[in-house]
Amino acid sequence: MFNHESPLRGEEFVTKKIVKQLCEIILGKRQVMYLGNIYAKRDWGYAEDYVVAMWKMLNQKIKTDYVIGTGQSYSIKDFVNKTCEYLGLEIKWSGKGLNEKCINKKSRKPIIKISKKFYRPLDVNSLKSNPTKAKKFLKWKSKTNLDMLIKKMCDDQLENNN
Fold first, then answer.
1. Do residues 144 and 45 make contact, with C-beta atoms less than 8 angstroms apart?
2. DSSP helix/strand/coil, 99
3. CATH number of the CATH domain containing 71
4. Which residues pair with 104 in a beta bridge?
5. Neighbour tally for 15: CB within 10 Å
6. What pTM was computed for the model?
């Protein structure tokens, strides 16, 4: 199972952190958030889709291993950009490395800064699944794309302030 996300994800996971803190920024509860390596790429899917895959695996006559994921890979920066777009935040990026920041075009103030504190020492730069076997034998594929996942997470965050 590659990264499977939902509104129930814990705040220690980057997707939830991004959604929660960007929602706090648009609600005026936070000024800035800090991230580490925004160029790390992940294959993020929706947990509910993955539960369907698990159910299908458990109901096979012949048990075998499958790779469950979307087959798509996006950077943390892509996730931030898509989340900002959904929330209506117009942004631009400037700088490089630890000096890179995301600026709110309206306020002209940084809303995201990079911090060495959030870099993982043993981070893998890119993760992407190959769910071909699951598609062929389970007739399964992820139904929820990244934009839909971000919408679900943002809507829940704004409704429930999780």
1. yes
2. helix
3. 3.90.25.10
4. 91, 109
5. 20
6. 0.95
Which pair of tokens denotes residue 57?
Answer: 């695996």
User: Which pair of tokens denotes residue 99?
Assistant: 């000096």
Model confidence at 123, pLDDT cuts 50, 70, 90, reads: confident
For the cut 70, the answer to whether the pLDDT of residue 162 exceeds it is no
What pLDDT shows up at residue 151?
Answer: 98
- For the chain, strand residue ranges (E) read 4-5, 33-35, 41-42, 45-46, 74-75, 91-94, 101-104, 109-114
Instruction: In whole angstroms, give the CA distance from residue 72 to residue 111.
Output: 27
What integer is the mean pLDDT of 79-100?
A: 97
Owning domain of residue 87: 4-160
Burial of 139 (0-12, 13-18, 19+ CB in 10 A): exposed
